Automatic annotation (TrEMBL):
Organismal lineage: Eukaryota, Fungi, Dikarya, Ascomycota, Pezizomycotina
UniProt superkingdom: Eukaryota
Organism: Aspergillus lucknowensis
Gene3D superfamilies xref list: Aspartate Aminotransferase, domain 1 (3.90.1150.10), P-loop containing nucleotide triphosphate hydrolases (3.40.50.300), Type I PLP-dependent aspartate aminotransferase-like (Major domain) (3.40.640.10)
Cellular compartments annotated: Mitochondrion
Keywords: Aminotransferase, Pyridoxal phosphate, Transferase
CDD domains linked to this entry: DTBS
Name the record gives this protein: Pyridoxal phosphate-dependent transferase
Length: 791
């Protein structure tokens, strides 16, 4: 279970990292704790060693107990082997603590100290920054959720400049705040001189300390006694020095500044920031959540405690919207951060037209292979889903007008789509959606298209249903029931059913009426496969989308009566009727458990747009993939015929490199069986009627979906991939303006004993979304909260 980051007003807690092994971390800790104990009688210090290795009589906490006698000391996990923790732990397999247990124990200990009058605490690591913990995870990653401010003990020895700077950069890239650097003065190597200048430029104070007395070569009793006395004197003198006292004052100020900044953040934001998708009328600072950091699936959100001495000021909060659907590999992923740093250091940004760099080329090739659509051969880069869809719109309209000989400057070209669609906020793609709350006050909005109403999929009272809109029941028939979600997705069988025939006839008749009776011209079919996200998490019957695609491709004569199309398709990869555009910004790249959501439909689009999960949630990037035939529509001797679209940061090297590594990581999860436990849970509830259902699964348990579907306040629920959607009943009417889901949202925000849950609502729909790396234990804890709130 997650822990809150370690921050208290009453306790100044710091983590001591070493640039290497044997650099004197424990000596530095002893100096600082003695300095605190000497300053004021009311101040008390504490020392925590989470993991210690080696003989018990040489343990670091015992050193503190002896030479800083007024310091409270504790060691959580002790291994007597004098080796790295991961090796020492292997030799005592029965006692290896889990990483989560180590974090929880550290936080519990510090929290207890915060309420007991301890004012200063040090958490000392073992070895260097990247020395492995008991389970092999680098300490820099192991302790990252706590995000304690860092005291870095630099290396004064030969080579210490390099190791010290490397340690600092490793901490920095993981989001730690290094607040001070200490090292022992060595007048020969003079590392303190060089590193003092280096860290001064970073605004980090460096304090050189006199080296401790040398250990006597003889181990007789007299020598050991003289050694102890020399150390007592050393600690007394150094701890009382003005430089050390000044450093403690500075650390105290930084702790206060951090708290003050978090306290004031919401008020300052309210005065200066214009939030997206937010009505500011009546908004107060209490409506804004300050986030100190984020790690894995969790925000660290600031909470003003009623009693600051009893609890931390930072609360672990599950990111239930996957940060607007972008999170794939967890917040603060060190691998992706390193990828970004590598590309930033190698390129920065380089202009793209007429040039190419390795990350952009590698991503284009890898993405085409990952998606696995033989039609798609070209990759166009933009920076977000809206602009990527804007490019897709330009591509499709040009290809259609070019084939049919239309002049779009002389007549309106429309699109076919689905009700509730949302493709972004740029003016072009805004016109690809029906009138709604999103666009009704946008002065340039015109709405150029026809949007089909459609059957939706949901579980209600334990049964999977395809629910037909009331106005279409006479045409499409009554609701359908299915034994499993996999049966709903058995599109190849269902397309030959009576429902498939009704769907095709309705779609064909509608398009004929629009073209022949109303004289409309269409340039593209644009759809969000499976789930229409911003429109309200609408789960479209996959059979309807399949039939819509089949009708458009199978009846090219529908779309240009004056100039019938050439025999079409010329090849299997040619577009027919209209180019089909799939907006997979939300649903693509494993969001629904598969590499491409198009695979659920058995349809290969002519254009596909990916963003959101493309970079694992780290940086903005979008790709618009197109067929060679679409690409050829822009080929001409004239510059004006080119696709004149782009951004200053097109194919930004940082984004491309991060996307390459993100895709590789997700592909590995898919290939190595990381999701098998989730898949098996849903396989157990597949059909038992002899059919072979499609593999459809979710990280959210089938039992939860079934249980919630029986809740009195729930109209319907579904889960697929990382998405869970709960539609609540609203007597006043559903839709984006409904407030029916606000109560459930508030209950989740109140959370449970482990953490609370940040979520967003779309009218009467509350949805939750995880990363593709979310832990089963975390998700089941959230499921418990949902059951308590709804059942």
């Amino acid at each position: 279970m997650p822990v809150g980051a370690a921050l208290w007003r009453s306790l100044r807690a710091h983590q001591v990292y070493g640039a290497n092994t044997d650099v004197g971390k424990t000596i530095v800790s002893t100096i600082l704790c003695n300095a605190v104990n000497q300053r004021k009688s009311e101040e008390k210090s504490a020392f925590l060693k989470p993991v210690s290795t080696g003989p018990l009589d040489e343990a670091d906490d015992r050193h503190l107990r002896r030479y800083a006698p007024n310091t409270l000391t504790k060691c959580l996990f002790q291994f007597d082997e004098p080796t790295s923790p991961h090796i020492a732990a292997q030799k005592k397999k029965a006692t290896i603590p889990r990483d989560d247990d180590i974090l929880a124990s550290v936080h519990k200990t510090l929290s207890g100290w915060a309420g007991s009058g301890i004012s200063f605490a040090l958490v000392e690591t073992a070895g260097g920054v990247h020395s492995p913990g008991p389970n092999g995870l680098s300490q820099a990653d192991l302790y990252r959720p706590l995000r304690l401010p860092i005291i870095l003990v630099a290396d004064s020895r030969l080579g210490g400049i390099s190791s010290s700077i490397s340690a600092y950069e490793s901490l920095l890239i993981r989001g730690y705040d290094v607040q001070s650097v200490l090292l022992f003065r060595d007048d020969y190597y003079q590392n303190h001189e060089y590193l003092g200048d280096y860290f001064r430029e970073k605004g980090i104070p460096l304090l050189p300390l006199p080296p401790p007395p040398r250990r006597p070569q003889s181990q007789d009793t007299d020598s050991q006694e003289r050694d102890r006395e020399a150390l007592y004197n050393y600690y007394s003198i150094v701890a009382g020095g003005s430089d050390v006292v000044s450093l403690l004052d500075e650390l105290n100020v930084k702790n206060e500044q951090r708290l003050y900044s978090l306290e004031e953040m919401a008020g300052r934001a309210q005065k200066t920031i214009w939030y997206p998708f937010t009505q500011h009328h009546g908004m107060a600072p209490k409506d804004i959540t300050p986030i100190d950091s984020a790690h894995d699936d969790f925000f660290q959100t600031y909470v003003a405690p009623e009693n600051p001495s009893q609890q931390g000021n930072l609360q672990a909060t599950f990111d239930g919207s996957a940060s607007w659907w972008t999170q794939g590999l967890g917040h603060g992923n060190p691998g992706l951060a390193l990828s970004a740093a590598y590309a930033a250091g190698r390129y920065g940004h380089v202009m793209f037209p007429g040039n190419v760099h390795e990350p952009a080329l590698a991503l284009a090739e890898q993405l085409l292979q990952t998606v696995g659509n033989p039609r798609l051969q070209r990759v166009f880069y933009t920076d977000n889903g809206s602009t990527g869809m804007e490019v897709a719109l330009k591509m499709s309209l040009r290809a259609t007008c070019d084939r049919y000989g239309w002049d779009a400057t002389m007549e309106q070209i429309n699109i076919l789509g689905l009700k509730g669609s949302y493709h972004g906020d740029t003016i072009g793609v805004m016109d690809c959606s029906e009138p709604s709350t999103y666009n009704q006050r946008v002065e340039w909005y015109r709405g150029r298209g026809h949007w089909f109403d459609f059957p939706v999929v949901k579980m209600s009272n334990g049964v999977w249903r395809v629910e037909i809109p009331e106005l279409l029941r006479e045409t499409l028939g009554e609701d359908q029931e299915f034994r499993s979600l996999g049966s709903v997705f058995d599109v190849e069988r269902r397309v030959r059913s009576g429902a498939g025939e009704c769907y095709r006839k309705y779609i064909l008749d509608t398009i004929e009426n629009l073209v022949l009776q109303r004289g409309m011209k269409f340039g593209a079919l644009i759809m969000e496969p499976i789930i229409l996200g911003a429109g309200g998490m609408l789960f479209c019957d996959p059979l309807f989308q399949r039939c819509l695609s089949d009708v458009v491709r199978g009846n090219p004569q529908l779309f240009n009566q004056a100039k019938p199309a050439e025999p079409d398709p010329q090849t299997e990869l040619s577009w027919s009727g209209l180019p089909i555009v799939f907006d997979e910004v939300f649903t693509g790249l494993y969001r629904l458990g598969r590499r491409s959501s198009a695979s659920f439909l058995g349809v290969n689009p002519d254009i596909a747009v990916n963003a959101k999960l493309l970079t694992g949630g780290l940086v903005p990037l979008c790709t618009t993939l197109a067929s060679e035939e679409i690409f050829a529509a822009f080929s001409s001797p004239e510059k004006k015929d080119a696709l004149l679209h782009g951004h200053s940061y097109t194919a930004h090297a940082v984004g491309c490199q991060v996307a390459v590594d993100s895709l590789q990581a997700m592909n590995r999860l898919d290939e190595n069986g990381s999701w098998n436990e989730f898949k098996n849970d849903w396989k157990e509830h597949s059909t038992d009627d002899g059919l072979r259902p499609q593999e459809v699964w979710s990280v959210w348990s089938h039992g939860l979906v079934s249980d919630l579907s029986h809740a009195e306040s729930v109209d319907g629920v579904f889960a697929i991939g990382t998405v869970l959607s709960i539609t609540l009943k609203d007597a006043g009417g559903a839709g984006y303006t409904s407030t029916a889901a606000k109560g459930l949202q508030a209950r989740l925000a109140a959370g449970g004993p482990q953490f609370n849950v940040h979520s967003r609502v779309l009218g009467n729909v509350l949805y939750l979304m995880s990363s593709v790396t979310s832990k089963k234990e975390t998700l089941r804890e959230i499921e418990t909260l949902l059951r308590e709130a709804l059942l």
